[in-house]
Amino acid sequence: MTEFQEKLRQQHEDSMHRELEALLGTATEPDAQISKKDFDGFKKLFHRFLQVKGPSVDWAKISRPPEDSIQPYEKIKAKGLPDDITASLNKLAVVKLNGGLGTSMGCKGPKSLISVRSENTFLDLTVQQIEHLNKSFNADVPLVLMNSFNTDEDTKKILQKYKHHQVKIHTFNQSRYPRINRESLLPIAKHMGVSGDNAEAWYPPGHGDIYASFHNSGLLDKLIAEGKEYIFVSNIDNLGATVDLFILHHLMSQPAERRCEFVMEVTDKTRADVKGGTLIQYEDHLRLLEIAQVPKAHVDEFKSVTKFKIFNTNNLWISLLAMKRLQENNTMDLEIIVNPKTLDGGLNVIQLETAVGAAIKSFKNAMGVNVPRSRFLPVKTSSDLLLVMSNLYSLDAGSLTMSKRREFPTTPHVKLGSSFTKVQDFLTRFENIPDMLELDHLTVSGDVTFGKNVSLKGTVIIIANHGDRIDIPAGAMLENKIVSGNLRILDH
């Protein structure tokens, strides 16, 4: 049987290589060179995909990470800062993952160009943060954007407007990999183009691709030559991911032989985070465990807040020299995430992806830092958008911080129904954003609109049944209320 399987594997691989060569034949220069590098990476991934069967972890071998491998943020902060933090900042570059589109929020184009606060987009806020850092400390921290073929063109057009800001901006593209037919395991692409019926044939292969594409772009070597030692990597939609001087100082102050090559910021799990990846000890290494790798029988255990108390925020600090070493020696071992999709026409495909945090086990002296929740403020849905647009947060130099007027530091739990999914619909339903300083929980379902200067406190549940509509009147104050039925307020 195994001999038969081996032959079958070989057959799949040979067929894939033939198809990829044929596709490359349709490319034009200089795209052909780039695509060839992309396909080399894809071949490695596909080869490993054919080798691996079943879950990639043996559940019995999993144990909790040793105490000292995840440091509390307070302990790192207690070290204080040196007089000359500028020297450390000059050895840092900030990388934002900018490959995603705004489609899940009903927007066209890159997600980073959605307005989130006072007309500022995610990208605006990022540039403001880093410029503020450079001006305050007279430093030179560059911003690097990892774009995908979906976001590159639109992002580059926008970058013109930051020409006069005190921040150097570099971009590079993550790879473009072919989606494969789930039955035949062959690419569905007919040619190298990305338009028309071929548009669905490609995908950016997850943020784990940063290692190969950063290296291939030449930017890794360029930054090393400029004296940069670490990059701080985070998702561009995580508004809490600002440069933390205490973590930076901790990295820079380690003796050379104990230099930490990889820091993952983790934070305490709440019920809302049960799907987030967690850090485990596995075969003497710190390792990231994602929900996709968990055997079905253990998924509930993985989601429990008692056994796995923390999750990965995807804010990472990575040594550039270590990245170069692992990439050139081909010793970066990232677990494959198999992501099944059904295309509009009903065709079942799979895309092979990897996660940037999965590389933690390949780096020396890797550690986790348990950071405050405020460093994890992702905007994935319109419910998140409502929170960051509200008076719960104040905006200062591109950074959002919880308002001092809120008495307790937890974020309210907000669930907006499907009428609010698209940003455009969401904005038309609020005349202005309600006062939410004293809110604990908000659920809104159905056709609901909010007048000016509404105030929400405690637990508020508003449900308009099918065919009904509720207009919350201007100036209303709802505290621990359930609102249902039908209430129309019309101009006379």
UniProtKB/TrEMBL annotation:
Keywords associated with the record: Nucleotidyltransferase, Transferase
Protein name: UTP--glucose-1-phosphate uridylyltransferase
UniProt-annotated binding residues for substrate: H207
Functional note: UTP--glucose-1-phosphate uridylyltransferase catalyzing the conversion of glucose-1-phosphate into UDP-glucose, a crucial precursor for the production of glycogen.
EC number(s) on file: 2.7.7.9
Pathway field: Glycan biosynthesis; glycogen biosynthesis
Catalytic activity: alpha-D-glucose 1-phosphate + UTP + H(+) = UDP-alpha-D-glucose + diphosphate
Similarity section: Belongs to the UDPGP type 1 family.
Self-association state and partner proteins as the record states: Homooctamer.
Pfam families: UDPGP
Binding-site positions, UTP: K111, Q174, G206, D237, K380
Species assigned in the record: Betta splendens
GO molecular function, one term: UTP:glucose-1-phosphate uridylyltransferase activity
GO annotation terms (biological process): glycogen biosynthetic process; UDP-alpha-D-glucose metabolic process
Keyword RNA-binding recorded: no
SUPFAM superfamilies according to UniProt: Nucleotide-diphospho-sugar transferases (SSF53448)
